[in-house]
């Protein structure tokens, strides 16, 4: 699988190219304007938004399929991407809805039949730097947009459950996931870092406790710089200590478990 | 899927009954003689041990398939069972090895061909009470045995990687997993509980710290009983406070993150 393809082409190829009954879905998370965002796509012929996803080609590892989806949608390579779970309930997809989708794309007969069968989805989440992403879609057929993680529109199939499971997994493993390092630019403010943890933990965090702990564990360091912030007091800027953060991914940052 | 079936029958049925290219593998963990054990099976015609596993019937949710495997192997229902990851690398299975297996079972021609294709495995782990399990296998074809988690024989395909990923996932989420509650009998000693955490964390834990923290978080309570222990001092017995443990599974036990 090299080239990006239009959805119609993909649906037409089907099981000659892809493993049947298997899809990949990617929760792509970015941070912007002090909120955690998730990238969603929509076929213009359909009403519901869905996760960026695809299928596993017969010559691909699932991780490669997920990287392909991510690159096709955002232009990004070499980003933080992890498999986290699978979704396979027999009624998770409304096969009637998929059949309607085929009709709207004018795919008829045997060609599209594979797409009305049952699918088990392999779930991936990715943490990317919002400003580095360029949203690519096939404009004839698709839209793509960032949504606040707290304000998601009605989604296709069980995609809301897939997002909820991803955030719950991240919450349970938060000490092992380099959230800030993957999501923030090189220089960031303490409120920005706190915002990310608040979005994942789903609650407010005490401002002073957070700052004290974040500084005490030695994974970030203050810069001798502030950011211009109009009429407000200019906030201090911080940066990550890369080696320490990589270590944390392996062994966990104790203080980052949800003990703020 | 109702009745347990011999491996030969299952391999003969194949894609008429099951979703192609998908398997489930179960890491069944039990605790005995102060060590954490994993249940492994072996076809008598093969040399390598493997995880208890099976396929997903077309009318089953994968969770139901995993529960079926678990019940067929141990007689247990209603146990702690969680999906944790999937394994799908294109070279994860030696298809030649699978073809050899078919030959040994004397399955020829088209019938077994589905089994020499690529499989994506859905990984489950289960925590069970060792003394309640009854190992069932098809004795004509199979063996089943508990192995110390630290002393596992050479395994089929990527099954060692599946076990390592399961223990690593449990380690990262240890505050959210009712390890002791699921693995220990109603009455247990403090060293038994500590043993479980040591096996999962892969290191020794300070005896006194562990005891102090376990008691301070209020999830276990001392009983006014000891266990007879021959010439040694009789150790005190403890029990779990069920409601608290169920709460912990939802919200996490902060102190159980690897901070002993």
Protein model, in words:
2 copies of one chain form a homodimer. Mean pLDDT of chain A is 88; it is low at 255-260. Chain A has 8 helices and 8 strands. Chain A is 31% helix and 25% strand. The first copy, chain A, folds into 2 domains: 7-172, Nucleoside Triphosphate Pyrophosphohydrolase, CATH 3.90.79; 179-251, Arc Repressor Mutant, subunit A (Orthogonal Bundle), CATH 1.10.10.10. The interface between A and B is medium-sized, with 30 and 30 residues.
Secondary structure layout:
The structure is a homodimer of 260-residue chains.
Chain A: H1 7-13, E1 18-32, E2 35-43, E3 53-57, H2 62-74, E4 80-87, H3 95-104, E5 120-127, E6 142-148, H4 159-172, H5 179-183, H6 190-201, H7 207-216, E7 220-226, E8 236-240, H8 242-251
Parallel strand pairs in A: 1-5
Antiparallel strand pairs in A: 1-2, 1-3, 2-6, 4-5, 7-8
Which terms would index this structure?
Nucleoside Triphosphate Pyrophosphohydrolase; NUDIX_hydrolase_dom (chains A, B); NUDIX domain-containing protein (chains A, B); WH-like_DNA-bd_sf (chains A, B); WH_DNA-bd_sf (chains A, B); 260 residues; 25% strand; alpha+beta; 8 strands; two-stranded antiparallel sheet; 6-stranded mixed beta sheet; homodimer; Arc Repressor Mutant, subunit A
